[in-house]
Amino acid sequence: MKTWLVLAAAVGISGCYEPASFMYSESLDDLTLQLHSLNVGIYPDNSVLEDPNNPFRHSTPGVETKWQIQSSGAHVAAFYSWATLLAREPGGEAQFYVGTTLLAVYQNGEASQEDLPLVKAQAIRAYQSVLDNFPDAVTYDATGTYAYDLVTPAYKGITEMGGMVQGGWTLVKLTNGQDRAVKP
Length: 184
Hints:
By secondary structure, the chain is mainly α.
């Protein structure tokens, strides 16, 4: 499915941010991730708002638009969308999806070969930031009715990429057999 900036028409509608400065019908699919700074996409850094490669630097993706971009398969565009949301309205959901999109960029080789190890490390740092800064973060299922925590998938994301979880977090098995990340 092609992702076009026309999808982002709702981007500048809500909030008091500057109107979008992109060209309509410009493709979001052809972006290649170039990490603008060492901490881009990691709370509390907001350098993504200065990144000339960020199509959302002068706007903010709307509630529906962020999910359309996330589900489109345009991982780099989704990274910029979530990182922009994180910089403008810090929260655990945005931080979690920064990690998720960076992992997808890494897995799909959507950065230069020499940058891929940095992208992987940045994904691990994004997930760790969920644990460190947003331990009560939740997201909702597609119906918008069921919230689930993000610390457990953030914990698992770190370990699945070969990272070491910091801060005393452990994974425990609940009585119902499900895993849960906890910090004693």
